[in-house]
Every structure is written in C-alpha cells, then in structure tokens.
Please model this.
Amino acid sequence: MKDHFTLEQKVGQLFVLGFQGYELDRETRMLLETIQPGGFLLFQRNIENFDQIYNLTSRLRDMAGTPGLLAIDHEGGRVDRLKQLFAPIPSMAELAEAGMASLRLGARIIAAELEATGFNVDFAPVVDLRLPHSIITDRCLASSPLEVARLASAFIEELSKRGVVTCAKHFPGLGGAVSDPHFSLPRIERTKRQIQYEDAIPFVRLFDQIGMIMICHAH
Model:
C-alpha cells in the first residue's frame, strides 16, 4: 500500500462497494469520495447501455485515484451482468462440455467484453464441483476436482491475457448446496474429508494463478 495514504484512505482501500442506479448521484458521489474504496462491484442495476456503462466505469476509475478494482460477475449463462449489451454466452457447464477450444473461446469473448466496458475484475470462474442435485450445476465446469482445476486454469489464462483479474469461487465449495444462498442459508452435507480432499482441491491447484478467492456462505 502506498506510504502517502492516510489511515482513513488505507481503511477505505479494504472495501469494494456497490450502489444503486446508472449514474452517481450527489450523495453517493460524496460518500465514495469520502471513503475512497479500493474498488467497485457493479450489477445489472447499474447497466443501461454500452455508452452509459463505459462512461460510468471511466468515472469510477478516475474517482479511485489509484488502480482500483472495477468488478462484475460474468460467467456466461445465467450469471452474465452484461447480457443486455452483447450476444449470449453459454454457461460454464456448456462450454466445458463442448471442449477445451470452446471454453477458451468463451473465455476470450468474456475478456473482450469486460475490457470493452472498463472492467478489470471478473468474479469468475466457479470452481465448485458439479455434484448431484446442486443448485449451481449449470455454473460448474466438471465433477472431478482435477478436471475443474484444468478447465478453470484455461479460463483464467485467457482472461489474464487481457489484464482481467479473476476470482475463484465459492471456497471451500458450494457444489453440494441444494438451495440458493442468495435467498436462504444452504446446508451442505459433505464430510470434512470430502471438503478437504475434493471440494478444496481446485482452489489449491489454482492458488498461484488466481487474483482472489470468494468465500461461500453456507452451513
């Protein structure tokens, strides 16, 4: 962290914040200028059209004053916050089933879309295992830990070529969840050994390649 930062600025750098709307209203702008967060996470609620989101990310980048994080969820499939701007991209599961060449192509398209709209962080890939009855089966690359790691590595590599930081999720493994954690606290019936020697393996394998890890919320 830069030596000239004040204590307040250093604390602000620990936060990645979101907000409502397509533009920054006066109150939000003043709050962000006061906090000076380390980055911003945007959702579909922040995206109206291409010009609007490009201008918004540019403004947020200028506001950060340092190389801040501009993050979004873009996995393809049903988790694609840019889907109203670009052609649909198959889900992670569909890309993986189509083969490595298709997966890499999908990753390159995602990276290009992120670069074009001003984002430098993608909260992807999902490296949870594709387990029976999982709520996120279509978002998972494979059921084998080593295969998940192999495919995710290729995805990460393609995004890295465009300067996009990736985030492996959802540690230590959400593949066993049968309910959506956005709406309820799921219970995962996995043993400690299964979590350690199966679910966690992709995270371990990819540790030196990824920029960050997202923690899951489950019981």
User: Anything to note?
Assistant: The CA atoms of residues 175 and 198 lie 11 Å apart. The two ends are 35 Å apart (CA to CA). The chain has a mean pLDDT of 92.
